[in-house]
Amino acid sequence: MTLKTTGKVLAVLSLSTLTACMSTSSGPYLKSSMSEGVGPLEVRAPYANYVNYYGYVDASVKPEGKYKGKDTYYLYAWVPAAVDEIGISMQSPVESKPTEKDFVHNNFAPGMEKDKAKFFDTYIVFDRMNIIDSSKIAQGGKVLQPLGYNDDTRELPANPSGSYYNSLLRQTTNLSNPTESLVRGVYRISFTSFRSQVEGSFEATIGTNIPGVKIAASLEELHKLVNTGNL
Ligand SMILES: [Ca+2]
Q: What is the pTM of this model?
Protein backbone atom coordinates (compact mmCIF):
# COMPACT_ATOMS: atom_id res chain seq x y z
CA MET A 1 0.00 0.00 0.00
CA THR A 2 2.72 2.45 1.03
CA LEU A 3 4.79 1.43 -1.99
CA LYS A 4 1.85 1.93 -4.33
CA THR A 5 1.18 5.39 -2.94
CA THR A 6 4.85 6.31 -3.35
CA GLY A 7 4.68 5.11 -6.93
CA LYS A 8 1.69 7.32 -7.61
CA VAL A 9 3.36 10.34 -6.04
CA LEU A 10 6.45 9.75 -8.16
CA ALA A 11 4.34 9.49 -11.30
CA VAL A 12 2.59 12.75 -10.50
CA LEU A 13 5.94 14.39 -9.74
CA SER A 14 7.54 13.28 -12.98
CA LEU A 15 4.49 14.39 -14.95
CA SER A 16 4.62 17.86 -13.44
CA THR A 17 8.37 18.04 -14.10
CA LEU A 18 7.69 17.08 -17.69
CA THR A 19 4.97 19.72 -18.02
CA ALA A 20 7.36 22.31 -16.55
CA CYS A 21 10.07 21.34 -19.04
CA MET A 22 7.66 21.53 -21.96
CA SER A 23 6.32 24.93 -20.99
CA THR A 24 9.88 26.24 -20.55
CA SER A 25 10.74 25.14 -24.06
CA SER A 26 7.71 26.81 -25.66
CA GLY A 27 8.15 30.61 -25.73
CA PRO A 28 8.26 32.24 -29.17
CA TYR A 29 6.54 30.37 -32.01
CA LEU A 30 9.54 30.98 -34.24
CA LYS A 31 12.08 28.24 -33.52
CA SER A 32 15.45 27.39 -35.04
CA SER A 33 16.29 24.45 -37.27
CA MET A 34 18.30 22.95 -34.38
CA SER A 35 16.57 20.52 -32.07
CA GLU A 36 16.87 19.90 -28.36
CA GLY A 37 15.72 17.04 -26.17
CA VAL A 38 15.73 13.36 -26.97
CA GLY A 39 13.28 10.96 -28.61
CA PRO A 40 9.60 11.88 -28.22
CA LEU A 41 10.58 15.03 -26.28
CA GLU A 42 12.68 16.34 -29.14
CA VAL A 43 11.58 19.84 -30.11
CA ARG A 44 12.99 22.70 -32.13
CA ALA A 45 15.39 24.81 -30.07
CA PRO A 46 14.62 28.53 -29.73
CA TYR A 47 17.04 31.13 -31.07
CA ALA A 48 19.22 32.90 -28.51
CA ASN A 49 17.87 36.31 -29.54
CA TYR A 50 14.61 37.65 -30.90
CA VAL A 51 13.55 41.06 -32.16
CA ASN A 52 9.98 42.01 -33.01
CA TYR A 53 8.45 44.65 -35.23
CA TYR A 54 4.82 45.72 -34.77
CA GLY A 55 3.05 47.48 -37.61
CA TYR A 56 -0.34 48.32 -39.01
CA VAL A 57 -1.08 48.73 -42.69
CA ASP A 58 -4.01 50.84 -43.87
CA ALA A 59 -4.56 53.22 -46.79
CA SER A 60 -2.07 55.70 -45.27
CA VAL A 61 0.81 53.24 -45.72
CA LYS A 62 1.85 53.22 -49.36
CA PRO A 63 3.19 50.04 -50.94
CA GLU A 64 6.88 50.32 -51.82
CA GLY A 65 7.13 47.80 -54.61
CA LYS A 66 5.61 44.88 -56.46
CA TYR A 67 6.18 41.18 -55.96
CA LYS A 68 4.69 38.97 -58.68
CA GLY A 69 2.32 41.82 -59.51
CA LYS A 70 1.11 42.36 -55.93
CA ASP A 71 1.59 45.54 -53.89
CA THR A 72 4.46 44.89 -51.51
CA TYR A 73 5.75 46.53 -48.32
CA TYR A 74 9.27 46.40 -46.95
CA LEU A 75 10.99 46.01 -43.60
CA TYR A 76 14.77 46.30 -43.27
CA ALA A 77 16.94 44.46 -40.78
CA TRP A 78 20.48 45.21 -39.69
CA VAL A 79 22.42 42.05 -38.75
CA PRO A 80 25.62 43.21 -36.99
CA ALA A 81 27.69 40.03 -37.43
CA ALA A 82 27.79 36.88 -39.53
CA VAL A 83 25.20 34.37 -38.33
CA ASP A 84 24.67 30.65 -38.75
CA GLU A 85 20.95 31.05 -39.28
CA ILE A 86 18.18 33.63 -39.47
CA GLY A 87 14.55 32.81 -38.79
CA ILE A 88 11.73 35.14 -39.79
CA SER A 89 8.06 34.95 -39.03
CA MET A 90 5.12 37.21 -39.68
CA GLN A 91 1.63 36.93 -38.29
CA SER A 92 -1.53 38.98 -38.67
CA PRO A 93 -3.30 40.16 -36.64
CA VAL A 94 -0.85 40.85 -33.82
CA GLU A 95 -1.47 38.59 -30.82
CA SER A 96 0.29 40.36 -27.97
CA LYS A 97 1.23 43.86 -26.88
CA PRO A 98 4.67 45.19 -27.84
CA THR A 99 7.21 45.48 -25.04
CA GLU A 100 9.76 48.25 -24.54
CA LYS A 101 12.44 46.50 -26.57
CA ASP A 102 10.22 45.93 -29.61
CA PHE A 103 10.25 48.11 -32.72
CA VAL A 104 6.86 49.70 -33.33
CA HIS A 105 5.55 51.55 -36.40
CA ASN A 106 3.82 54.92 -35.84
CA ASN A 107 0.57 53.44 -37.15
CA PHE A 108 0.46 50.73 -34.53
CA ALA A 109 -1.60 51.58 -31.47
CA PRO A 110 -2.50 49.64 -28.34
CA GLY A 111 -5.74 47.72 -28.76
CA MET A 112 -5.01 46.57 -32.31
CA GLU A 113 -3.95 43.11 -31.13
CA LYS A 114 -6.31 40.20 -31.75
CA ASP A 115 -8.47 42.28 -34.10
CA LYS A 116 -10.86 39.77 -35.63
CA ALA A 117 -11.98 42.11 -38.41
CA LYS A 118 -8.72 43.50 -39.77
CA PHE A 119 -5.96 41.06 -40.61
CA PHE A 120 -4.35 39.67 -43.74
CA ASP A 121 -2.91 36.50 -45.17
CA THR A 122 0.84 37.12 -44.94
CA TYR A 123 3.47 36.20 -47.54
CA ILE A 124 7.13 37.03 -46.87
CA VAL A 125 10.21 37.26 -49.07
CA PHE A 126 13.72 37.47 -47.62
CA ASP A 127 16.53 39.17 -49.57
CA ARG A 128 20.11 40.15 -48.87
CA MET A 129 21.06 43.71 -49.78
CA ASN A 130 24.44 45.02 -50.86
CA ILE A 131 24.86 47.19 -47.74
CA ILE A 132 27.52 45.82 -45.39
CA ASP A 133 28.87 49.08 -43.95
CA SER A 134 26.64 50.35 -41.14
CA SER A 135 27.66 53.96 -41.81
CA LYS A 136 26.25 53.70 -45.35
CA ILE A 137 22.75 52.38 -44.57
CA ALA A 138 21.10 55.74 -45.29
CA GLN A 139 22.73 55.87 -48.74
CA GLY A 140 20.58 52.94 -49.82
CA GLY A 141 21.43 49.94 -51.91
CA LYS A 142 19.93 47.14 -53.92
CA VAL A 143 18.95 43.53 -53.45
CA LEU A 144 21.92 41.24 -54.01
CA GLN A 145 20.24 37.85 -53.61
CA PRO A 146 16.78 36.51 -52.94
CA LEU A 147 17.28 34.06 -50.07
CA GLY A 148 13.85 32.61 -49.39
CA TYR A 149 10.11 33.06 -49.15
CA ASN A 150 7.13 31.57 -47.36
CA ASP A 151 3.37 31.84 -47.62
CA ASP A 152 1.78 29.60 -45.00
CA THR A 153 3.03 27.73 -41.94
CA ARG A 154 1.39 25.60 -39.28
CA GLU A 155 4.11 26.58 -36.78
CA LEU A 156 2.32 29.88 -36.09
CA PRO A 157 -1.22 30.19 -34.71
CA ALA A 158 -4.14 30.25 -37.12
CA ASN A 159 -5.67 33.63 -37.92
CA PRO A 160 -9.15 34.53 -36.54
CA SER A 161 -10.81 32.76 -39.48
CA GLY A 162 -9.08 29.54 -38.42
CA SER A 163 -6.69 29.36 -41.39
CA TYR A 164 -2.96 28.77 -41.00
CA TYR A 165 -2.04 31.60 -43.35
CA ASN A 166 0.83 33.17 -41.37
CA SER A 167 4.41 32.90 -42.60
CA LEU A 168 7.72 31.53 -41.32
CA LEU A 169 11.07 30.79 -42.93
CA ARG A 170 14.51 29.76 -41.78
CA GLN A 171 17.65 30.55 -43.74
CA THR A 172 20.92 28.84 -42.82
CA THR A 173 24.30 30.12 -43.90
CA ASN A 174 26.35 28.35 -46.55
CA LEU A 175 29.97 29.31 -46.05
CA SER A 176 31.12 27.49 -49.17
CA ASN A 177 28.82 29.60 -51.33
CA PRO A 178 29.37 33.36 -50.85
CA THR A 179 25.92 34.17 -52.27
CA GLU A 180 24.27 32.09 -49.54
CA SER A 181 26.47 33.07 -46.60
CA LEU A 182 24.71 35.15 -43.95
CA VAL A 183 27.20 37.95 -43.48
CA ARG A 184 26.95 41.19 -41.50
CA GLY A 185 24.74 43.62 -43.37
CA VAL A 186 21.26 44.77 -44.31
CA TYR A 187 18.51 42.29 -45.21
CA ARG A 188 15.09 43.11 -46.58
CA ILE A 189 11.81 41.46 -45.67
CA SER A 190 9.12 42.08 -48.27
CA PHE A 191 5.58 41.30 -47.34
CA THR A 192 2.41 41.06 -49.36
CA SER A 193 -0.68 38.89 -49.62
CA PHE A 194 -1.96 36.66 -52.38
CA ARG A 195 -5.41 35.96 -50.92
CA SER A 196 -6.44 39.37 -49.59
CA GLN A 197 -5.57 43.05 -49.41
CA VAL A 198 -2.79 43.94 -47.04
CA GLU A 199 -4.71 45.65 -44.26
CA GLY A 200 -4.43 45.20 -40.53
CA SER A 201 -1.85 44.70 -37.81
CA PHE A 202 1.18 42.49 -38.18
CA GLU A 203 4.07 41.31 -36.08
CA ALA A 204 7.37 40.41 -37.72
CA THR A 205 9.92 38.45 -35.68
CA ILE A 206 13.57 37.77 -36.45
CA GLY A 207 15.45 35.09 -34.53
CA THR A 208 19.25 34.73 -34.55
CA ASN A 209 21.97 33.61 -32.18
CA ILE A 210 23.48 37.11 -31.91
CA PRO A 211 22.26 40.23 -30.12
CA GLY A 212 21.89 43.62 -31.80
CA VAL A 213 19.60 42.89 -34.76
CA LYS A 214 17.41 45.91 -35.54
CA ILE A 215 14.30 46.26 -37.71
CA ALA A 216 12.85 49.38 -39.34
CA ALA A 217 10.34 50.26 -42.04
CA SER A 218 12.84 52.30 -44.07
CA LEU A 219 16.58 52.53 -44.56
CA GLU A 220 16.53 56.06 -43.11
CA GLU A 221 14.93 54.76 -39.91
CA LEU A 222 17.29 51.79 -39.82
CA HIS A 223 20.24 54.17 -40.18
CA LYS A 224 19.04 56.14 -37.16
CA LEU A 225 18.46 53.00 -35.09
CA VAL A 226 21.88 51.55 -35.88
CA ASN A 227 23.97 54.72 -35.82
CA THR A 228 22.27 56.89 -33.21
CA GLY A 229 20.42 54.27 -31.19
CA ASN A 230 16.98 55.83 -31.60
CA LEU A 231 14.52 57.17 -34.15
CA1 LIG B 1 0.08 33.18 -46.09
A: 0.86
